[in-house]
Structure to design on (166 residues):
């Protein structure tokens, strides 16, 4: 528990812990969506796409770690039971039932856009009020924007390749 961490914030602690826990659950779901998607993927540019998925999965896991550290510092508890991830998260888990790479990329694009909105929201509510949560969220936001761009680029590249093959 960080006594000063809790004292200096100019925002309701429970409100920010709730947001951080939603983000935390979403990171785990994103991690697994990428990780398991990388295992089952089939189709064009599979090797490059799965490498990217595994890289993103590791970054989502790192985000979960940063969030859990901040939740604990603020006196909260990170979601303890994976059964609760889906109820706490706003960004939904989308199982890779169709293993075609473009379908997986599109599912992960939606997830990344949801993540961008999540961190944009946390940045908005902590700006000028909770500098440390703002710093962490802005750092994650930067990486989610990169993820969204990279996934979008893969979709565009596969699209161009498929068109040229016709
Ligand atoms: Fe993330
Ligand atoms: Fe991401």
């Amino acid at each position: 528990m960080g006594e000063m961490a809790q004292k200096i914030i100019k925002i309701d602690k429970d409100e920010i812990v709730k947001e951080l826990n939603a983000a935390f659950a979403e990171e785990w779901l994103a991690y697994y969506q990428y990780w398991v998607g990388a295992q089952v993927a089939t189709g064009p540019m599979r090797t490059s796409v799965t490498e990217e998925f595994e890289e993103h999965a590791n970054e989502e896991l790192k985000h979960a770690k940063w969030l859990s550290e901040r939740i604990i510092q603020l006196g909260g508890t990170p979601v303890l039971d994976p059964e609760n991830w889906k109820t706490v998260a706003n960004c939904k888990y989308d199982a890779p039932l169709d293993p075609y790479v473009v379908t997986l990329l599109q599912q992960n694009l939606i997830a990344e856009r949801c993540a961008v909105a999540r961190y944009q929201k946390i940045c908005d509510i902590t700006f000028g009020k909770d500098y440390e949560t703002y710093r962490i969220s802005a750092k994650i936001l930067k990486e989610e924007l990169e993820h969204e761009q990279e996934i979008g680029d893969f979709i565009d590249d596969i699209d161009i390749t498929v068109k040229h093959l016709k």
User: Anything to note?
Assistant: The radius of gyration is 17 Å.
